Amino acid sequence: MTQTSLYIRPAGPSDAGPIADISRQTFYDSFAEQNSPENMALFMNGPFGREVLMSEIGEPSNFFFLACMDREVLGYVKMRLAPNPPALEGADAIEIARIYVIKEAIGKGVGQALMQHCLDTARNMKKEIIWLGVWEHNLKAISFYRKWGFERFGEHIFVLGNDPQTDWLMWKKL
Average pLDDT of the chain? Predict the structure, then answer.
């Protein structure tokens, strides 16, 4: 995969189905081994259900961008203007809510291209801070974010099924 053939484009309503499918498959591939089948099923059939995910596309506070090659979607990012965590109260910030890459494209520059697009988008929006939440046990993702200059500033609880898990909150000043 060469960087010149990879492109990023805004997602539209017709992309809702593919985004939901990538979300569900990527989440399952990434976290099923570390979680019980019961909790995965509760999450995948509830807050991470296909229809729920598809409904996010039209929300005005959400911004979706697709990483594509030859019309194939290799990953996407969801950025959102959401209430800041208490530690960022009053800051002009934007969240990277999801940055997902299909299993076959991991390590091929897709995540890097999406992250660069996030930073460029946040800067173009004149944001002061970009932040995200990442599961404390997702060491590969934490390492990726640290390479981009993100630092831990707090934590919050993410409930997967019936399992309260700790997400680290990480930020980068722009």
Answer: 94
Alpha helices in the chain (DSSP H): 16-31, 37-45, 50-55, 110-124, 139-147
What kind and span of H or E run contains 134?
A: strand 129-135
Catalytic residues: 145
Q: Tens of pLDDT along 2-56?
A: 445 899 999 999 999 999 999 999 999 999 999 999 999 999 999 999 999 999 9
Cα–Cα distance between 146 and 169 in angstroms, integer? 12
In the predicted model, is pLDDT for residue 71 greater than 90?
no
Tell me the C-alpha distance between 55 and 47, whole Å. 11
Share of the chain above pLDDT 70, in %: 98
Three-state DSSP at 11 gives coil
- CB 23 within 8 Å of CB 66: no
CA dihedral over 125, 111, 171, 44, signed as positive or negative: positive
Q: Any idea which residue has 């809702």 for tokens? A: 16
pTM flag (> 0.85): yes
Contact 11, 66 (CB under 8 A): yes
Domains and CATH numbers, the chain: 3-173 (3.40.630.30)
One-letter amino acid at 162 equals: N
Token readout for 164 is 């309260």
